[in-house]
Amino acid sequence: MWISLLFAGIALERLGLTSDYLTSVVPSEVGGLKKQNTEFQDNQRKVMDENQRLKGLIGREQACQDALNICQGEKKKLEDQAKSS
């Protein structure tokens, strides 16, 4: 009877159906998976944040490139006007 009770307790713990009190006594598969899931979610959040940051940098780089092209065009117009004057 004690052995079956022990096995039933281990089975419940491994399925994650017990309270957090017993989690430190018997290693739980569900607890390990929850920990991995949390770690993966944190990593995913970091990657998404970095992706957003890079998109912002690319947008600003494109805006700077456009402004540079406009300035170079205006400079060329002014140089052409100065030559023709």
Topology:
Elements: H1 2-14, H2 29-84
Give an overview of the whole structure.
The chain is an all-alpha fold. Helix content is 81%, strand content 0%. The protein is rod-shaped, with a radius of gyration of 32 Å. The mean pLDDT is 83.
Compressed to H and E, one letter per element, the order equals HH
What percentage of the residues does DSSP assign to strands (E)?
Answer: under 5%
The tally of strands reads 0
Structural class: mainly alpha
Low-pLDDT regions: none
How many angstroms separate the termini?
108 Å
Question: Characteristics of this structure?
Answer:
single chain, 85 residues, mainly alpha, 0% strand
Short description:
The protein is mostly helical. The protein has helices at about 1-15, 30-85.
